[in-house]
Specification:
single chain; mainly alpha; 7 helices
């Protein structure tokens, strides 16, 4: 888990206190990524390929605020977690243990159960018996 949680995003959005520039100024790695998007360095054929992405992150487009999904705020946390995952992956036993624990923790998930709960709790519909 990394980055802002839902409550933090709601607070920032409601208070109007999210300013992508704050994150850009503090993070040289982020500045480099954005410069690469802006310069066209990542798109040899079409130098403007990533311009809409750059504009949406830095300026906002079509009446939407800059970085409306708070991606810039989460980048530092993402890169930290990614580095940790890369280290963990190098330790085979540790990685296998984590993978097994993740599998075990998904035991409660079932698409049949999820659909049944949606039908009952959200859509307020009852099952219809079907004879085969």
């Amino acid at each position: 888990i990394f980055g802002l949680n839902a409550d933090e995003i709601v607070r920032l959005r409601t208070a109007g206190k999210y300013h992508p520039d704050d994150y850009i100024r503090k993070n040289p790695e982020l500045q480099n990524v954005l410069n690469m998007l802006k310069s066209g360095e990542l798109s040899q054929e079409d130098k403007n390929l990533f311009k809409p992405l750059y504009d949406s992150l830095v300026f906002g487009v079509d009446g939407n605020p800059a970085d409306e999904y708070f991606l810039l705020a989460d980048l530092a946390g993402y890169t930290e977690v990614h580095a940790k995952i890369s280290q963990d992956f190098k330790d085979k036993l540790k990685w296998q243990r984590k993978a097994l624990l993740n599998i075990m923790n998904t035991g409660y998930f079932s698409s049949d159960r999820a659909i049944k709960e949606y039908a009952e709790e959200i859509w307020k519909v009852k099952p219809v018996p079907v004879s085969l």
